[in-house]
Write a structure and sequence with these properties.
Structural class: alpha+beta
Oligomer: single chain
Shape: globular
Distance between the termini: 47 Å
Length: 384
């Protein structure tokens, strides 16, 4: 068992050209920005060491007589020490088809989503009835009515709350969701917007020994996170909370094959191409520098980096592409070690950790970035 090196040329594209106001990176002309009032994470109670999860995956994905040496080496190199799972570890062997795993996603997702929303609203000092927009993202399960519809009634939100359920953004959705809250609040400055991310990656595990499945099994964990945001004038923002100053979305042509799902009777089969770190290394540097240059900034001006912990190779590619100093991505490495890659939840957990435990100095700059299927990236420029 070996992760193949893909013999495929990485598309070479020039950096994006940024002109005018249509690119969404200039400050609002009226001097408004979006303030993160609170962000909170909810993790399942079932927490396991990496080697316990490794043996579970060996039991479920490998033949009984298969040598597990390579599997254990792969999991040992993933940068993950512990993970939270939606279900007790002994229940995974009994899960059957996609219907059963999706039903488990619904039950656990509602519980975790409600917990994350409740904690975030309490931290922001707001009742559920004050929420005007609820964006809900998940790529690990599907439902109609969606999670947000079920939670809105369950938690006492108003009947006229606006809802946007999102599927398909994957790991990028934490950053992209915060960016879309910012877009909304620029036009609805007296309102409250909330992002909920629920990712139960363990429930997508396939019963096979494909390289993509085993790589995903080495990295991904479960969790939920919620962000509460509102608009504030730039001159009035003195709370010490992070404010979204600008955002940038980039979708790279001819890279759809790199990351995503193949969806079939067994559920979500992962697509994880070995060329992803090459694309990140080639594109992140020029594209992020161009984005920052619109604000007269460079990577050296960013004091706080909130980077999606896609895996050790991704983080290494980002650090090299931006020539970051040692320790700049420590928050991402810590999040990966403690919780694994929780897809869209991960950057929000890092934002919570940074904001509550090690608040950056006032007026300092931060940058949130994440990557996802498409292949795409999202940049969110923050200021404390």
């Amino acid at each position: 068992m070996r992760v193949p090196v893909v013999d495929r040329l990485v598309p070479v594209m020039p950096p994006a050209v940024y002109t005018g106001g249509s690119v969404g990176v200039r400050p609002d002309p009226d001097g408004w920005q979006s303030v993160v009032a609170a962000v909170r994470t909810a993790l399942p109670e079932h927490r396991y060491a990496q080697d316990e999860v490794t043996e579970l995956i060996g039991d479920l994905c490998l033949a009984p007589e298969a040598d597990r040496t390579v599997l254990r080496r792969l999991h040992g190199a993933a940068g993950v020490r512990t993970r939270h799972l939606a279900l007790p570890i002994e229940r995974y062997a009994a899960l059957g088809d996609f219907g059963e795993t999706n039903a488990a996603w619904m039950v656990a997702g509602l519980e975790l989503g409600e917990r994350a929303l409740t904690c975030a609203l309490e931290a922001a000092g707001l009742p559920p009835s004050e929420v005007d927009l609820l964006v809900c993202t998940s790529i690990t399960g599907i439902a109609a009515p969606s999670l947000d519809a079920r939670l809105a009634s369950r938690m006492g939100m108003r009947p006229d709350v606006k809802r946007i359920p999102v599927f398909g953004l994957g790991c990028v959705a934490g950053a992209a969701g915060l960016a879309r809250l910012h877009d909304y609040l620029r036009g609805h400055q007296g309102e409250v917007a909330v992002l909920l991310s629920v990712e139960l990656c363990s429930l997508t595990l396939q019963r096979d020994d494909s390289p993509a499945n085993l790589v995903a099994g080495a990295l991904f964990g479960d969790g939920a996170a919620a962000v509460v945001a509102h608009a504030a004038r730039v001159d009035d923002h003195r709370s010490g909370r992070p404010a979204v100053v600008a955002t940038r979305s980039l979708l790279y042509p001819d890279t759809e094959h790199l990351l995503g799902w193949t969806i079939g009777a067994g559920g979500f089969r992962p697509v994880v191409d070995a060329a992803i770190p090459d694309v990140v290394g080639a594109r992140i540097g020029p594209d992020l520098r161009a984005f920052l240059a619109v604000h007269g900034l460079a990577p050296d001006d960013i004091g706080t980096w909130i980077c999606h912990p896609g895996g050790p190779r991704i983080l290494t590619a980002v650090a090299h592409a931006l020539d970051l100093p040692d320790g700049a991505l420590d928050s991402a490495h810590r999040a990966l070690a403690v919780s694994g890659n929780m897809s869209s939840v991960s950057v929000l957990r890092i934002l919570e950790d940074v904001t509550t435990n090690t608040p950056p100095p006032p007026d300092s700059w931060g940058l949130m970035m994440a990557m996802g299927p498409g292949f795409c990236v999202e940049f969110v420029l923050l200021r404390w």
